[in-house]
Amino acid sequence: MASVRIREAEEGDCGHILRLIRELAEYEKLSEQVQISEEALRADGFGGNPFYHCLVAELLPAPGKPQGQGIGSKIIKKVAQVALDQGCSQFRLAVLDWNQRAMTLYKALGARDLTETEGWHAFRFEGEAMRKLAEK
Length: 136
Hints:
Blueprint: E1 3-8, H1 14-27, H2 38-46, E2 55-60, H3 71-85, H4 100-108, H5 114-117, H6 127-135
Antiparallel strand pairs: 1-2
């Protein structure tokens, strides 16, 4: 079993956080969508933004792959604790439609799949579409 320590992120973690963002994007086959720099991450995450709260999970992995060692459950539990401490009534997770393992975990922990129960779809404005919209 892997040992996990979950803590508040510090500004010095930005390089590692960006590496993890890139690794996740690669896993999700979305590498081309990562356009943030370490400097922008530092400004967004540590520039006094009251809506941004970053946690870091430090792992001392057991031999083998980290999957199935309860790390994801521990991280989500910590997010729930922080959200409640901050006065939040909910938090949301995004997952790609092919990632059944993540969906199964979230449901097992008590999350509702809003696509199934309420029909919600996620939308994003970015780049040229955002610029065009702002001009109107």
